[in-house]
Amino acid sequence: MAQPAGPPQVFSPAVPGVSSTSSGATSGSGGVKRRARSAGLPKQRYSEQGQAANPWLDPPEIRAPGGRRWTHRGPPLTAEVRREVRTLLQRQKHYENDFSGWQMPFPFELPSGAPCPICTLGECGDVNCPTYRPKYPEVRAAIEEAVVQQSLQLLTQPENRGIKTYVSVGSGLLAQDWMILEKLRAAAVELQPCRAVFVELRTAVACEGRRFTPEEGGFDLCQLGFSAPLGPEFSFSAVITFEGASCHGSRLFDFGNFDGHGEEQDNIFVDVLPSASVNPQEPGTLVFSVRRGSGEEVEMVAAGGSWIAGQPHLYLFTVSATGMMRIYIDGQLAVSQQGHPPKRLERKHLYVGKSGASGSTFCGEMRKIQVWDYAVDSASVDGVFADETERALTQFSSWFAQDMSVYSFASLASYAAAVAEDRRFEADLLVQVDVHEEIDGYDDFVKKVLGPQGIALTLGGPGKSWRRQGAKVVEFSLQNEVLAKTEARTKLPWVFFGPGKVGQSHFCEEESRFLRLSGWPSGRYQRRRSSHDWRAERC
């Protein structure tokens, strides 16, 4: 999209009761149009310090049901700093900083020497990602152009209300969202939202973990004070080292309700089993199971060749709201299979390293234990990510302190519940950028949260785009050649992974580089390489 001529204009909102000339705007057609007053708000509102507040910001008493509102309480950014930062948008090449696997497109210091107020905003730093911006700079321009064009076409008509609520799903560290909002601000006054909502994933409970022995036994996470219900979504992650054959028959974790006679009810658990040949020298098997009720209604998914004694690896077990069960090992999908979701209820015992049905104890070590009451992917496991997100949201809310109210939610379900309770949170523009795995139930979620003229755009990844037409939400296609090529790269049926990630019969011991198919079957398979092709044989 062509950039506006001259330096970018600084948007300094007019304060009620103050003339437009005193706030930096000139009257007439050449001045910057000011946003219309939000409907239903009083003529004048004051902050805690007695100063007049912007009429389009949500009142201080408004809170996000099930989410968090981000409020900036420090001094506002100066017009000079904002103008200098906005000149970064005019650059053909952004700065790149290495920061915990993220690439940060803004410098830590501005050319004037002032600290950059958005330096912790970032985006995906995976050089192998098909949307990695330094490698594919055309992707950023295509995303911003698609959002602006669709917004101008569908949201600025006389019968539409423009953008009041901007929503971003899987927003990461907000750099792309900041750029999109700045492009919308420059495109039309109707596209300047008065609130921004970010939907992310948060950890429900976490602990450092320890070594497990028969003498010390396991422990109950309820002792940490966690009592929230789990289900229908669930995830468990830990760095696990297995001792050896002494692990056979034990459980990594067992979350459920148990009576005094050992009867299991509504439990979520992982069994540690030997190989199919019961040879202690071969890599073992993990079986992830979800039980509904107290009967035999159990769905399970098994990953053969998934652990080797003495080798630590990062494991993630997750089940979605639709019952899709997955096991990740070192960030790579080992197996995915349709099962059923766990019931949403509080479980009396959250055992780690032991079972509620037997006296067996896991022998080995579990570190960096994390539990979510949401289905997460491998990119959300790193504990540092929560701190990085906190810093990014703090800087983001500081930048837009005079322009919009900023909220965050930990899951799609919590945001949808907030919309049902307060229709102000309905999405006029919903974007999903760089989410490379389809989100189970996302289409149904869109239908619940879109506003009367809302649109939902899926960019840089798989999924559909939607718009509301009357009482219906209909699918529409985005015609963009660059994004079409990007989405095609994310849908390749195979990928390469480096040493130590995956081998012919298991994930952990192979030292050379092999082709991996997109999904591992639920049983134990041996993958044999011939001179012409790959084949899988059932053991």
Automatic annotation (TrEMBL):
Instruction: Please list the residue ranges that the record marks as compositionally biased, kind Low complexity.
Output: 12-26
Show the Gene3D superfamilies listed in the entry: 2.60.120.200
Any coiled-coil ranges, and where?
A: none
On the tree of life, the source organism's domain of life is: Eukaryota
Q: Which parts of the sequence are annotated with region: Disordered?
A: 1-75
Indicate what this protein is called per its UniProt record: LamG-like jellyroll fold domain-containing protein
